[in-house]
Amino acid sequence: MKYEKLIIELMDFFTGSVGEWGEQQQWGKDKEADLEIIKDTLRLRNISESRIGSLALWLWDCLFGQALLNQLFSDPMVSDVKILAHDHIRLKCLGDRKDSALCFENPKQYLHFTEYLLCRFGLQMDDPRTLLSFCDSSSHTGELLCYHVSSRRGNSSMTPYLHIHRIFKKKKYIQDLVDSGMLKPQAASYLMDQVRYGSCILFTGSSRLDLSILMNALIDQIPHSHSALAIQEREELFTTAHPEFMFQYTAPRWNKEETCSSQELLEHGMLMDADYLILDELKPENVLSFWRAVCQGQCCWSTLPSVDAREALDTLAGYLCQETDCALETVLPSLQSISCVVSLAENRVTELLEVQGWDPEARQLRLHSVL
Q: Where are the alpha helices (DSSP H) in the chain?
């Protein structure tokens, strides 16, 4: 590549490999400021002024890896990119996985790209944490890119793994889901009623993307006379229609010191007069805070990975037993606080399971399959 040496020099500058530049970690947050640095570097090399603008933009794309990412995500059907090595990139397209014909030129270029990416978000390759997650909502118009990095210290291959998940900012609404076949009209009507009545809902399925798409469509059905709070790792849920909707994040933004756990945000959320509490995923560490909100009468939603709706209830019961040391017989009756469980598979809602109460004689939940 004609400008390979210049690209490496600029990468060293921005990532801080050259120590005399001062606070390198501020670079990457302001595209215009970065472009001015690149333009000044080109002027020092006597590049003609007429070429500097376009060349600076191209170099910026190379530095951030945007040129390669733009090609990888050029197909709108691609939802995920997973980089396992500089010459081993996998794509996920409509649920199917395949190899990409694109790759980095060499291991050093991939390492530089990863270092610079982390630098943009106030992180470093020598961060004591092995796993890092962050989101980019500004580099790609109309898209949110969620990055998950597994550093070299945790990988047997001694190269970082990078997973990039794409979320389109264009919202899908209930009618869009009906038209696409994700929801049958009967299921759509049932779920909209459940949302308006303030029911507690569990969502389960293997695809995080499908769960987010459905929940994102349903949050617009929350009555405007109620307030809501969504707690999530990445900016998947959003609304421009509801007048009193708060969004909080567990993944680090610019400063890792500002990160709060989902448990902390749930506890605080119960003090913020939120009628609806929406959690992106139930885990053993946050289940007690979530269940406290359910028992206090708040309308709570969350996802819970499992095979089907009944297993989701079993998993929830197992989490509660594990965290409270209570027997299963004690925990099971409390699950009647969940109104329904929504199960998704293969890009569509496959089951709606309604919890109709507790049968004291049979000592089990009364369950009814709506769909």
A: 4-15, 31-44, 49-64, 66-72, 107-120, 174-180, 185-196, 208-218, 262-269, 287-295, 309-324, 328-331
